[in-house]
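Quick one from the shared queue. A colleague (R.T.) flagged Ubiquitin-associated domain-containing protein 1 as missing a structural entry in our internal table.

Convert sequence to structure tokens.
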Amino acid sequence: MFVQEEKIFAAKVLRLRICALDGAEWLEEVAEDTAIERLKERCLKHCVPGSLEDPKSVTHHKLIHAASEKVLNDTKTVSEENIQDRVFQAVAALMEMGFDEKEVVDALRVNNNQQNAACEWLLGERKPTPEDLDKGIDPASPLFQAILENPVVQLGLTNPKTLLAFEDMLENPLNSTQWMNDPETGPVMLQISRIFQTLNRT
């Protein structure tokens, strides 16, 4: 299989649709021992007409590669700035209401950076507390035992993608829908949700 750097480059190629229609098939044709530079060269040769020996063509290929890298970096930066701006605006708005900064940060943390929910939390009973979030489920509880004893969950926990999904959902709770719809991680998430709801009803 590809080494990590080659996988990252291949993913960028497909994501940017540089190798539009037959990108996946092209990636399968690439030999396992292909170096990253050779992979980039093949991609550019595959995507853009012209010979790599032609100096104009080589410059053109380099410009395309540089442009694609810039698009990826700019998109990530803009996305991060938008999230930070929204959180900063929410903190400022809640502090204008007279709440302490630490309380506001806790409220936003508990409510996944949702300003309205954080405001309701600050005005209400303040449950769950930030400390409750850090504790998680008690390992001795029936809920924890039921989740770990479930065969679907046991099988899913052997897949590294499941761990990635859980970590991503902790950092970005809004991504949970994406992981629920994923064919590999979805069944595990659904099973945990069913167990949780069943035990909470009893």
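The mean pLDDT is 72.
The CA atoms of residues 44 and 62 lie 8 Å apart.
Added to the table.
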